Amino acid sequence: MNFRTIQLTTELPANVTKGFQEKLLDGRDYDFCVDENALVLKPNGEPLLKLVKSTLPLSVCELAWKNFRRVAKSPIIGGSRGTAAGTALKPARKQDGTLGAMYGVPDLPRLRDSSSGVIGFLDRSVRDPYCRQTAFGPNHPLVLAGLPFVRAVDAVFREHMPDRYCAQMQCVTATAPEFVIRGTAFTTITVNRNWQTAAHADKGDLREGFGVLTCLCAGNFNGGELVFPKYRVAVQFRSQDVLLADVHELHGNAPILGTPGEYERVSCVFYYRRNMIHCGSAADELAFARSRRLGDSLYPDQASRPPHVISQSAEPSLALEVEAQPTPNPLDGANTAKKDFVADTESLGNAVPLQELELRVATLEDREKLESWCSGPTCPKIGREFPFMWRRYHNWTSERNRPTIAWIGDRIIGFHATSYMKFGYCNLLYVAVDIQAKRMGVGKKLIENSLQRGHALGMTRWTNKSHKGSDGESFFSRHLGIYPVAQKGNEVIYDWSIKDIHTCDEIKARVESDLYRLDEIPARKLSTYAKAVRESGLELLLQVPNIPDSRNFKE
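Now predict its structure.
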């Protein structure tokens, strides 16, 4: 097989390349398109891509298309991949037209026929602090049917990019075998259907490895080229082709041109997630998830692991000799443990009526018991961070800012921690309710207690932060109908008036202008907002006076 070597000479400067981020690319963003067996080198001599044409058996591709197209069933709209979609995440609208609490990719006509899915395994995240199998694990029927295709792609990678393959295989052999797609150099495959991705650079995969891409095509369409705007080059690949590419460079698709419903373009991205090497066995991951507290590192033993030395003499066949074993799902054990725990504590909500709920400001004698509850199995994730953060930023000597604890008898079932600031703000830090008492209205009572304490201390406004998609955001935005004032990254920020408001029902009864009273925000807080808008990427969602960068939330 003969390959043409193309030495690139064009490389746009970083400040120009940055302007392409999240942009939809087209024919104006490249000077020529590679559509033959070719090795394309960057101006510094490093490989940008290698296209291997017509190398996969047609029968294997057809079988993969029939099955993998069904993996890509999650709509892009409503998902979290805003960068690749070329749009900021926004609050989703409910059926009645009001804005919901969840943030996602907005409903854009160009994305309505696009979907995605993930095969294999994912590493730890803040939301899921354990390495885990996706819904489409190696033993899923759709994946098993497409496994010959995956192994054929792996063989092309091994043959045509041996140095990068060996580097990736060295990590594979050091990874727990239950978190690797057996017989390959991959842990994960992302499947995209009919999606023109905006310019983005891949994150989370092994830099010493290389991106491996295929395209399974049906029907008649044109376009869809993969464009690298920094180098003014594109590449076209179709069924039976394998593209090896540096996906850490900015890249995106040209428009896919065809009649909707008469074509299908299913692209597959094969990779090794770089943090999978830090995963233990499935049992280890379950134990870690049970013992971890909020604020703890996702990989506490990462620094003690020896660094991986990339050796060209590494033997890539080692992982291919691993005997196929059923892949345990760490979630199975977690679900079983949860059921056992619920069976032991299910009487909490029914044994004691809500009338016996008592809220009182914590005393110094309550501290040890509260911290013990925060580290116990019935405390939600948000509460587990409290003892560490409170010791770091506050103290128990001042009763003004001590948390309020919810008791039933001598048992703690929740608490709230609020900082009452000198310039009139109740700053809610934490509300945590026992996982077996969520339906008892305890959270609502704790919020109302914060309001009462705030009024007694002369507070006039309320502020707090919540993570998008969290229980806190759901409570404020969906249950109480309070929209955030601003957002930054994965956080939303609330800021509203508490004048004449003492209960949650009164909050829901207020009209927006009466609830927010944004013209009453203190000058000190306005200065903080303006500085954050200028310097740290804060995005204001409500029209805040005297800050020109703010915008109307309802637009």
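Residues 141-160 form the longest helix (20 residues).
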